[in-house]
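Lab meeting prep.
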Amino acid sequence: MPEEGGRGRLRARFDILVRSTSRKAGTALRLLRAGDFNGLREGVLASGRSLRDFWHDQVAPLLPFTRPFHQPQNASTAAWQSVVGDLIDGAGRPLGDIVREILPRLEGAGRVAVIVPCHDCHAHIDDTIASVQRQSYRDIEIIIVDDGSDDARTSACLERLAGRRMRVIRQPNAGPAAARNRGAEQAAEADYLLFLDADDLLHEHAVTLLLWWLKANPAAAYAYPDQRFFGGKELLWQCQDYNAYDLLWSNHPSVTALIRAAAFKEVGGFPAAVTRGEDWALWQRLAAAGHHGTRFGAPLFLYRRHGENRSLSARRDDLVRQLHDAARPAYLPA
């Protein structure tokens, strides 16, 4: 039975356009201008084309920004591969040996502010902070932003933590994006920012290795690791290599990354109007300003899975629509 309505017409249009290379990029851009990102994706997939190939060959040359499709190789690649092997399956050189070689090269590399937004977070905040305090890189300040907690146990927990190599900033409840931005404002002396939710954890060498990777990739604005899920079903998520165009369709950098503070401040931080998927919106905002990421392929970030995870409970269709509306100007010609 033939499809009816707008989707059927869209599929039929792309079946024709895919055979006409002179017209399909223009049609894609018209769909983008109309905000019909899902329609564009559906049409390309229905035509039998690879979405990435279509985007790269036909649409990307018309867009206002570019990005490297392959990360440059450098002298640290071999050591990086040893780190990956060690963290995943124990192969390669001992990780401790690699870190001991890296740390002297990072002397004077700059201060890292780890910003932890918190709202009624008493259940896991101790473990989260302990994972930051165990970092092998030592020039770290911890800023906890209490985003209007009204739970007495959280208040008592934060009172106990305050002053132990960290600051606690309190504000009326304004949401996670505003809390993260407030923490960044308080980190005026920091060269790098890392945002960590109050129920997640860092591998003990996370900051060391991500900072080293940023030093090895000076053109990158942020470095993001693979991640390990724990709590409930445990699994390893190997992130996709960075691709600014794919950020339109999927949030492939991990939520916790090491970001150059100057790039974060240049784009104005997290968009306050985005209430779900703030990290995805930030990556899109950075890409639009020419600030791109680089993947460090080892699981340095530990993401706690449970029924209350905001990002897992959000309705994806509404989230994607909201982010597409915000990102649309960056993905269109001037």
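Slide two material, second protein:
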Amino acid sequence: GTLGAGTTLSNDNQPFVLEVSPAAALGDTMTVEFRLAGDPMLGEWADTISFVCGLPDGAAMADLNGSGGTLTLTNYGHLGVANASVLAAGGQGWTHALTHENCLYESSLMLISSDGGFADASRGSALECAPVDPVTVVTKTNGDVVGVASFDDRRSGSPLGVRVDQTVSMYGDAQVGHYAVIEFDIVNESGTLIPGMQIGYLVDFDIMSPNFDDEISVALPGNSGFYNWSVGSKDVAGVVSLGAPFETIHYYSNHENGKLDLSTNQKMDALLGPSNEPITEPGDVFAIVCSAPIDLKPSQTASFALVMVAAESETELSAAIGDAQRNWQQVTDVDDEDGDAGLVPRSYLRQNYPNPFNPETVIGYALGQAGPVRLDVYNLLGQHVRTLVNGWNPAGQNTVVWDGRDTDGTKLASGVYLYRLKTDNITETRKMVLMR
């Protein structure tokens, strides 16, 4: 017989087979309750199973085992995929090394463009991202564990025509907390301009102690991120941008929306609309963070980086964010004899951290090759404030600290300042906020 939604079938014969129609949507999670009744020895017994309707061809996953815990990386736009998550594909989730508990229900990518393109790996649209390459994991000589996966959006109903190269890093020398750095390189393979592309990331933590139903959301300054705080356990888990601040952060309560009831229109509103207020009523909460829109030219690459952090207190969370930022900016010396592949950075300017800041902030930049570098600070009137770097720099990652003073050593007033990196092949400018 046919078992429709909310219907019941009886079977007096054993064994039996449950078959899913080919018309079932790829990636949909189905839940079936089995109930045994009428046996005088066993009485009445019931159990429930949930399963995903297939995975795409070439689907793969791998566990990244770092010093802080384990995170499962897939090549179809999801992290975690534990059996208790939105996409129950048999992964480990994001488990803490001390508690061995999974604190991640879902972590997934969305892309949108101003000409109607929309690719979605989240919630009920779980598998619009199609695998391109298998998941590769490298454990480096210093204990860093790096996973790389590639997928594209050709399964989407309105594809942008992009390939996504995702890198997840678990650092071997993590000093505090429990964190993973997540980086996306989105490559325009459409052959045409992708106008107004924005990158969205849905993150739904389940802080399990004592339960995941007593969380509130807390916004970090300057749209730099957010964290969920468990009222009962005081544990925290959050997301922080490692580049420019997020353009918007949209908060949701699963009590209001249902765990999976997030429509395509709601997702698009989160990417295109303004931020809303954090959820302050304890419950099961999640958020979507979104980048600023960019016009992506053919063959051009857009980068998006963030860190997921879990900790046992807000103080530890803050320390872990700083630790993650330092690790992310660091260039690792590679021992080729151990078979590690070297990292060849491209030239770019990083967002300062912390931001907003007082009294000082760290500005990072990467050079694809050694050469002359100038890094200057300006006010919003375009007036030069201070030169931080002016000279030859080695290839790789570099950092400099600005103490919020001008060339004469005078403390500057609160406000927005610009910092500009100029090399032989790039000129790039970002904003930072000084708060006295």
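Talking points for slide two:
The radius of gyration is 24 Å.
The CA atoms of residues 28 and 124 lie 6 Å apart.
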